[in-house]
Amino acid sequence: MEIGPRTVATIVAVMSFAVFLGFISADPDMLQDICVADLTSKANVNGFPCKETFNETDFLFDGLAKPGPTNNTFGFVVNTANVEKFPGLNTLGLSMSRGDYAPYGLNRPHSLPRVSELVFVLYGELEVGFITTGNVFFTKTIKAGEMFVIPRGLIHFQKNKGPTPAATIGAFNSQLAGTQSIATALFAAKPTVPDDVLAKAFQIDAQQVEMIKAKLAPKS
């Protein structure tokens, strides 16, 4: 079937719109070419003020090049390339992270309130999943070279399914995604969430609440 000029124009318009959507950021638009974050400034703004002087080193970050240590309770560690570590990202509306997993390691259920996330598997095989606000659970097993998208703000997790290490790269549409671990937020908040609230919410007793709080308390 021959494709006419009008059909071609429609296809181009749709593809252009798809590309445009891909560049939508969760952050406000920048108003200048460059605004390297001044992390030492005391100014209280939505983001970070611009440094007066900067150079090419402000636009380089190598913190995701090597695996991180996974010898912890959950067998998981994340290294972030966000504006707090990579000042050149300021006002650009993007960031990345690297997740490293021990065999059967778990990135616990958490939410990213400001961003959507694209998870790319470097190596290994992971179970990934998210839960909608209607309590519908979506899950998939992904392997090296595959990607999975997590919609903004939804509770999600990743788990290494294999007996060998795994690693992922995460891409975010904000310079500072923000992460809220569900278990830690509820059982290790400061000041603490009242035991009776947690006991009733999870249908357990106060003693069990205290046991969970003790396990999740920050290590001194």
From TrEMBL:
The keyword Signal applies. SUPFAM superfamilies: RmlC-like cupins. Keywords: Apoplast, Disulfide bond, Glycoprotein, Manganese, Membrane, Metal-binding, Secreted, Signal, Transmembrane, Transmembrane helix. Residues 62-210 form the Cupin type-1 domain. It comes from the Eukaryota. It is found in: Secreted, Extracellular space, Apoplast. Mn(2+) binds at H110, E117, H156. The chain crosses the membrane at residues 7-26. This is Germin-like protein. It comes from Corymbia citriodora subsp. variegata. The lineage of its organism: Eukaryota, Viridiplantae, Streptophyta, Embryophyta, Tracheophyta.
